[in-house]
Amino acid sequence: MSLRPTLDFLLYEWLDAAGLNARERFAEHSRETFDAVLDTCERIARERFAPFNRLVDTEEPRFDGEKVILPAATKDAWDAYAASGMLSAAQDYAIGGMQLPYTLEAAAGAFFATASISIGGGLLTVGNANLLMAHGSEAQRRVFAHNEFSGRFSGTMALSEPQAGSSLSDIATRATPDGADYESDPLGPRYRLRGNKMWISAGEHELTENIVHLVLAKIPGLDGRLVPGTRGISLFIVPKKLVDDEGRLTGERNDVALAGLNHKLGWRGTTNTLLNFGEGRYPVRGAAGAIGYRVGQPGEGLRCMFHMMNEARIGIGMAATALGLAGYYASLDYARNRPQGRPVGPQGKDAAQPQVRIIEHADVKRMLLAQKAYSEGALALMLYCARLVDEQHTGAPEAADEARLLLEVLTPIAKSWPSEFCLEANSLAIQVHGGYGYTRDFPVEQYWRDNRLNMIHEGTHGIQAADLLGRKVRMEGGRGLMLLAGRMNATIERALQRPALAEHANALAQALQQLGATTKAAWATENPAEALANAVPYMQAFGHVVLAWTWLDVLLAVGDDAQDAAAVGRRGAARYFFHYELPRIGAWLQVVARRDMSCAQFPEAAF
Amino acid sequence: MSLRPTLDFLLYEWLDAAGLNARERFAEHSRETFDAVLDTCERIARERFAPFNRLVDTEEPRFDGEKVILPAATKDAWDAYAASGMLSAAQDYAIGGMQLPYTLEAAAGAFFATASISIGGGLLTVGNANLLMAHGSEAQRRVFAHNEFSGRFSGTMALSEPQAGSSLSDIATRATPDGADYESDPLGPRYRLRGNKMWISAGEHELTENIVHLVLAKIPGLDGRLVPGTRGISLFIVPKKLVDDEGRLTGERNDVALAGLNHKLGWRGTTNTLLNFGEGRYPVRGAAGAIGYRVGQPGEGLRCMFHMMNEARIGIGMAATALGLAGYYASLDYARNRPQGRPVGPQGKDAAQPQVRIIEHADVKRMLLAQKAYSEGALALMLYCARLVDEQHTGAPEAADEARLLLEVLTPIAKSWPSEFCLEANSLAIQVHGGYGYTRDFPVEQYWRDNRLNMIHEGTHGIQAADLLGRKVRMEGGRGLMLLAGRMNATIERALQRPALAEHANALAQALQQLGATTKAAWATENPAEALANAVPYMQAFGHVVLAWTWLDVLLAVGDDAQDAAAVGRRGAARYFFHYELPRIGAWLQVVARRDMSCAQFPEAAF
């Protein structure tokens, strides 16, 4: 009933994470060093995150006119996290990193995310700095990224605008060269930015010395117009406070102004902002606009940003998963201790008997088992994807390329599936608590509210689905989908060797066949409007097939003779998934297969 | 895009509500008087409820040590509601009522519930007073019920206790005779009550002169012990302030003390309390215990309470439905006005084109159509059930008895189905809004939070499912289920006459056959532990079949040639339900049919 044993099993017995230290980059690591990282993170999460999860929900960030005020616990949590070294866990030893595999980084992150998803803002800072490590100049890496890894600065991703959320091609923030010498700034080509950025998490706070905004903006052409579409988008570093080329604050405030705090349903520990760039609130260096340094080439902004998208989306999936796990643990604890009612026996109920704990009721078991199957299954998938990231970065060329392509196909699932089904898990966690679950005296209602964000940010459910069915399963001639099917078939074949797993293996084989046929049928007319009319049901079914495969593959690491509680639990959760969940794909896929236009062609006036 | 046209269609064109005035009780009514009631309620809801829905969420009830403080708007809403006469709408003219059919009362209630579900507490007061009209003495009716109908007093239902929520047989509140003359009190046999009651909505406030608590308690036997089980439960009127036999306040406070306010996830406009009865905070008339007057015979408390359960549960279903509708209207409005992205054409998207409103995207249409199908379908079912209540009360004997039995079977669905699927609708309403839906600047997040209560109160989802599969489909030799199947078959036969409806009719016929076979299979071993192991999936499938039938029956009232927007909308929503929703029953029913014990037999240690 705690996260650690599940992580240990998945990492070491299923994914052979310890085997990663055969690779040069991880040669100085071992199961012992991995365990030390997990120990540290587990402890910090327990001491500095979990006790304050409700506090950061009730004491929402507020702006006093000058500063954004956060509970002191938020600063403590940030400092402890930074001090742990986790911000630079994946980086080279040479710059103070641990050269930790991403698989371990992701696993360790689960401790923080289950303890308090919104108190920590580390994810964005690491993503920001990683992007600069990949696409920034030497000076940009040294001045900005390195200071983010140390925790001295924090980072944001400023993509959306009030009028451009899902549709990034419509951003209107403008970047114009800052003076004739704009190209000779040691921090990179210098521009002046003007525009508004919406939904910027951790966009304003006092947790760190400085905030490094990574901002998408368009450089107008000679005619002063912005290029339509995403090709016109470039990427800029816009620090809240200006720095010199050694990263020291110059004492100048950049023209980045808080326009408003967003007041959210959940995830309240993290400030979410509307920022005005270059509106003139903080005039800087005698000209208009916020100063920004271009990263990479003009017009390559989105490509740079998407470089990090897989990890960002796995991060969202992990957040959703962690909330699912947190709700599962909380409701399991409640169910083990709450007496209520009597079991249904062959003769019904006997009121003269004492009450039993609710975990003895079949329906409560069903709700707990569903949560276990959803959230532990999702955790396995997240770690599998993290392992693919390591493969992509450190594997032999062919394996690395396969990992890259598998990630392309799996990322929409890794992001969307936990967002939907671990949210459902949280609803079940409330239900297990009965009326108490509806009160703020128990943590589950907050998990449910926090988790509702994950289907929205970093690309909505609809965006993920269009990406999956419109692009990912067709890219490179469908090679990604074939590769994934190959992995699933390998699992099926191994499972067929074991009589206890044959039923599941056959069910998965049939589901996979159905998924493949449906993918073909969706595109039979080669008309995107028809193929994508039911992209979300397709993604739901695809996700369920992936999760069924994940559970079957996990069972391959559980001995058929193993009778310890954990083994019985995994077998039971997989069985639940195959019996109760996998059959749901039929209803989802049939509308896709016949390219049902009931929704797409429904006339607006008829709503 | 407003509730009224949908209500008008369902009431008059589908259910022939106007035909009710052929009955003696409703003879003075007509479509005109019904419309006048709907007009009034629509106006009060718009003026006194809707504008304050967010306010009552943010200004939660608080206790200042003496009084529970609510926003002034709550008192205004109560007064306007009471002044409308709706509290006594169904009562005889002789006591100031309107003799309005319940069908109309329920329809009118939808205006208030969509406007602000939690500002109004009328539902409980009416239920309380109705119970007294059915089971109270003449004095109890006159002193308590009549003053509730006028809005001078309000009412509660005090069933649950901290240790006894779903399991009412375990209540421990004790009622002992109050003195030797206890049986001669004009207000009824007088007892002294001691115990704690949990989850009491509107349990303490200053909205009315007095609060009439209806309290379940056990009268100890001669040995001082409480009878185990529900047979030992009796029902008592426990007024917050004592009254004389004319209903005038005597100036004495009864010993009912607020022990705490529950702080909830939603539904915050309604105070929810833990009450202590007879703890000695307000000693009264020189003896210990809160004074209560027994209603009905000793041991008959639960029977009296359940008399009103059908209407209470339809009320919950209507609340869930109304919240579903409110979210649908809000997201429809948003989708019609929010520009974002471009449609997918046969050649994909064209970034040079201007953005379109999101209602033009297929996936947004899917989310809107799902909401429409869920919430308008649920509304139809609620009104159908309300019409059965009228039939039960005013129909010819055989029809009345059929209506009673149909209600027995349908009530668990009427309560549970909207609670689950209109909550899902609210989640889709958030999703349509994207990031804005996650903020408290838009109403949809509150609808979602408010709606989460409905799967919990008035009998949880699990309790409804056990009631449905364990009792309702088997009672009277399965006659209720057969009756319902008969109604469905009648709809199917009529639909088969119309080529445009034949596909749906056949799908429903097949689903009904599957449901019947599964019901038999569940009970094939006559072992409740096996039959009920998957009661919730059974109820979900049952509900979907009922809703498919409802939609098909609604379409019978829509001409095949009608091409007005409303007709096209109903046809499209029904089509959505048959294509996307009804096929889901397969996955739910197969575990029921094979009496899958995966959950029930999962060992506790393995979680």
Automatic annotation (TrEMBL), chains A, B:
InterPro entries with a match to the protein in the record: Acyl-CoA_dh-like_C_dom, Acyl-CoA_Oxase/DH_mid-dom_sf, AcylCo_DH-like_C, AcylCo_DH/oxidase_C, AcylCoA_DH/ox_N_sf, AcylCoA_DH/oxidase_NM_dom_sf, Diverse_Acyl-CoA_DH
Cofactor(s) needed for function: FAD
MF GO annotations: flavin adenine dinucleotide binding; oxidoreductase activity, acting on the CH-CH group of donors
Keyword Lipoprotein annotated: no
Keyword Flavoprotein on entry: yes
Keywords: FAD, Flavoprotein
Location of the Acetyl-CoA dehydrogenase-like C-terminal domain: 485-602
Segments for region (Disordered): 160-187
Pfam family, one: Acyl-CoA_dh_1
Residues annotated as domain Acyl-CoA dehydrogenase/oxidase C-terminal: 299-467
PANTHER family: ACYL-COA DEHYDROGENASE (PTHR42803), ACYL-COA DEHYDROGENASE-RELATED (PTHR42803:SF3)
Similarity comment text for this entry: Belongs to the acyl-CoA dehydrogenase family.
Protein name: Acyl-CoA dehydrogenase
Organism: Ramlibacter rhizophilus
